[in-house]
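Listing S7. Sequence submitted for prediction.
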Amino acid sequence: MSQSVAEAIISRSEMLQLTSQILQKVGTPKADADSVADSLVLAQEAGHASHGVIRLIEYTNFVKNGTVIPNVKPELISERGATVAIDGRWGWGQIACKFALEVARKKIKDLGSISITVKNVNHIGRLGEYVEALAKENYVSLMWCNSDPSVAAFGGRDRLFGTNPFAAGIPNGETPMVIDFATAASAEGKLRVARANKQAIGPGTVIDKNGVESLDPNAFYEGGALLPFGGHKGYCMSLMIELLGGAISGGHPATSSRYERGNGTVLIVMNPEFFVPADSFAQDIAESAARITSTTPAHENKPVLLPGDVENLQRAKNRGGISISSPIWESIIELEKRL
C-alpha cells in the first residue's frame, strides 16, 4: 500500500460550512450542526484527522440507521450535590458533552469539584477538546468513556473493549497541558484514515481474525481486533475505563449483557483554588513545565514537548488553511452531493 497521499488545503470557513450543511441535510438543527461541525474541524485543525471531517461518513450513516436522533437535546436526569447524570437521548455526542461542560461551569463555582456522567450518546468526538476548554478557564479535569467493542484483552483475540480514551486538562496559562489518548494501540478512526488513504499501519496495532498481527488496516474491518497499548498495562487501563465508564454512567460496559452501544462518559472537574492558593498551583505547574521542556533532549533536533504542544504546532501550520487528505476531502464533497 502507498505511503504517500496528496493533501488539499481548505479554508476553515469552507470546511465548517460544508460540514454543517451535511449535518443539516440529515436533520440536525443549524445551531447544533454548527456546533458539531466546529468540533470536527477543531480536531482536523489540531492534526487529528481520525476525529475530523472523515467522521461525517459514519455520522450520516448513524442517522440513517437510527442510532443517532439528530434533533434531540440532552437532559439532566439526576442532580445530587456535586454529582450530575445526563441523558444524551441518542442525540449528537458533542452536544451532550458541551451541555455537560455548561453544567460543570455553573456548579463548580460553589462546589469546587463536580462529577458528571453522560449516557445514551454515540461518538462524543475528541475528548481533548473538552478538557482543553476547561483548562483554559483554570479548571483541572479528567475525562474518559467506553465504546463499542473493538479491542482485544491482553493475550486474547476477541473484541471485548472499546478504544476507551482518557483525557486530562491541566491549566498552564494560555497553553494548558492536554493529555488525550486511546487506551488501544490506535484510535479506530486512525485505521479509518489509513484505509481511506491506502496506507499501512504500524506494528503492534492490529491482529487479524486469526489473532495474527497485521500491518493492513483492512485486517481489523475483516474481523480482527485492535490491541491495547503497552501490553498488560494498557489492558488494565482500558478495563478500568470500560467498567467505570460504562457502569457508572448507566450506559453499561461493552462486556455486559445489557450493553447496546455508545459512549458511557465520565467527566470530573476541579477548581484548584478550593484546594490550594491559586498562585501556588500556578507556580508549581509553570515551574514544572519549564523544567520539563528545558531538559536535555536525547536527540539534538527533537526537543522535549509537553502534552498539547503537537496540536498547537499543527494549529499554527493550519492557520492559513487546514490540511486534509485529498481523497478524504473528495469523499466529503461527494457525500454532500448524495444527501
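Caption to Listing S7: primary sequence and predicted C-alpha cells for the chain studied. Residues 93-111 form the longest helix (19 residues). The chain has a mean pLDDT of 96.
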